Amino acid sequence: MTAREDHDTYRLEIPLDASGIWDFKPDQSVKVAVQNRKWSVSSQTVKLDAKGQGIATFTFFANPGALRILVGPENASDEELLGMQTINVELSARQWADRRELKLPPIQIHPYYWYWWLRWCRTFTIRGRILCPDGSPVPGAKVCAYDVDWWWWWSSNQQVGCDTSDATGAFEIKFRWCCGWWPWWWWKYRVWRLEPILAERIVPVLQRDPKLPKLPTPSPAPTLAIFEQLLAEEGVLTRPASTTVDPAVLPSLRDRLLKRLPRVPELEQLRIWPWWPWSPWWDCTPDIVFRVTQDCPQPGTVIVDEGFADVRWDIPTDLTVTLIANERACCIPICHDPKDCPEGNCIVISHACSNQVNNIGGNPGAPATPAGYANPGVAASHGDRPYAGAVPISGVFGDTAGVDYYEFEWAPTAAGPWNPMPPPASGGFARSFWGPQLPAGPVGFHSVPFSFAFISGRNVVQSREHFEANNDPGSWGMTRFWISNRDLLMVWLTENNFANGTYYLRLRGWDLAAGNLVNSRILPLCDTDKDNYLVLTIDNRVVGPASGHPPSVPDHPCGPGTVHLCTLEPDTDFTAVKVIDGDGAVTPVGACTNVDVKKGGNLEIDFMTYDPDGHLAYYTLIATYGENLFVNLLAVGTLSVGAAGPAPAALQKGPTYGAALAQGAAAPTWAGGMLHLSVPVNTAFPEPCCYQLELRAYKRTIAGCNYDFSHNNLSEFTFGVTF
């Protein structure tokens, strides 16, 4: 011992005694930690002998003063010992008076602690796969697991671990989980937020009880003040409302609340406090949800985001899961069907947008008519749909096709004549793969452009197979995997390049030799002896002065400052609005005027909903009034065909494509036109107010692969009603 150690040090011996444990076996060591008033911590591990005896010895270079002594399992960190409800001994500063060596009485280790320490902190393992809905694996996804807790209408997620999925979508998350925290310690590491689903369950239940005070608006920050308001007597608080949360008071607060609140079995089953007891600092098995992101197509794209309804309660130490990603995930395609990976010197043209060709009229496997329309023969607004704008066309070459470059040709009929695709209509694209960067680099998501270019006087694009053969060919399907646009062949840019109509497309393949295109050929459709082809019907629309819509007409304005688009595809308009009262008197109604309807009668509306291309899907006509109120005029009025005006008289009144077909329209054509609606005024106008007629019309066109009827138009007409 050095001079300093001999004269200036302070020595503390802490005996340990586990002899009171029946059938004691020294199969686990013990950690002893001491903490001074400055929160500095020292610790050491003690191996107990066969009799359960051991000593921890600490040396200090100055009088340590008061100390807190903690005893726990050897696998606990110093910080964990400070926060957990384990053996605690307080050593006062007085005990060091005139002493440099201090030996404490043995600290007895009770069997409760000895056996609890065995499960105090455990390692959990979660294994699983992240898949797309069709079973394709999702690579390169960051899978994070969270322990979730909630009480009242607040929830908190604590991340326990993350892993990145491999090419099979597999991942493994290992994490250490401890329990037995001091409530205040556990609470300070949680971040809370408002959980709307919980609020939606709680609020209606309490609103049904007239004895309870009105609840405040749910807030993101937890507070106990709301519960004192619920416990108030005749609106008077029985104690000061606390805005801070001391989790230690929750058990007693729960007892008081249960005497006041109604019993709700549904909320008990959902484990919502106070109907369900809650002490998560003693929760030794986590309750897990997952959140998964993928840097494809954009960094941090969320592809799984589990919540309240997805919790896996009290998971085992080994858990296996399968997570299903949403539609935003990038997957590694697999061959679910022979058509996905065809054999032979052939091609399968499989999709236009997301429609399989066997669901587009006139294509292989689809009804013959109407040719080029998606959902052919379906008597509904989503039936017989043409295309517009950019149309991605996908397909797969047979395994022996050997096409290096290809181009598309077009024709007005199946018999030709065939023409090269105009360069402005041949849209290139990018494919993405997951794996090492080319020629060598980090693993991740990487984009590869596939652009059309002129070679030997032809506007062609490289095939995926040719790219693979010239870029580390042995890696594809082994360490590199296409995950985005793998089967995309071309984006057909129809707008401003093709007039509306039905077109046949086919793919011509080429080999590349010495930088030149050779061996031109039209590949057959796989499993047939027919040339490959695709038939699509195009219906683009024009918006603006070139559309033919008169922008300066006072009673049919369009463009900036209006809600009405300057287009005829479709066009909408109110051509006459009038009231015919109970005496037969006719009162024309102008925009921004007032009309008196105290004599009853009918509201008569002449209006136009028209698509000259005959691709109308449906239209709606409502009257809005007051605050968030409306009347569906088509549902309460009598609809009939109108007289010719700015558009022809409607041959079928609809108001949907399916209804028009039942009324005699010949698929795929329904143009709409001039229509008339009669509605009793007491039905159209429930109360004196300002009313706005809203007429909306929608085309069936799939524009830019948008299936939400984005080709639409709107007309509005506002007036006041008095009784």
How would you summarize what this structure contains?
By secondary structure, the chain is mainly beta. It contains twelve helices and 43 strands.
Overall description:
The chain is built from twelve helices and 43 strands. By secondary structure, the protein is mainly beta. The protein folds into five domains: 3-109, Sandwich (Immunoglobulin-like), CATH 2.60.40.10; 121-179 and 284-324, Immunoglobulins (Immunoglobulin-like, Sandwich), CATH 2.60.40; 193-282, no CATH class; 338-534, no CATH class; 545-722, Immunoglobulin-like, CATH 2.60.40. Strands 21, 22, 26, 27, 30, 31 and 32 form a seven-stranded antiparallel sheet that branches. A five-stranded antiparallel sheet has the order 13-11-10-14-15. The radius of gyration is 38 Å and the shape is flat. The chain starts with a helix and ends with a strand. The relative contact order is 0.08.
The count of strands amounts to 43
Cα radius of gyration in angstroms? 38 Å
Described by the principal axes of the CA atoms, the overall outline is flat
Strand content: 35-45%
The helicity comes to 10-25%
- Give the uncertain stretches in residue-range form: 1-5
Number of helices: 12
Question: Main sheet?
Answer: 7 strands, antiparallel
Distance between the termini: 106 Å
Q: What is the number of domains?
A: 5
Mean pLDDT: 93
| Class derived from helix and strand content | mainly beta
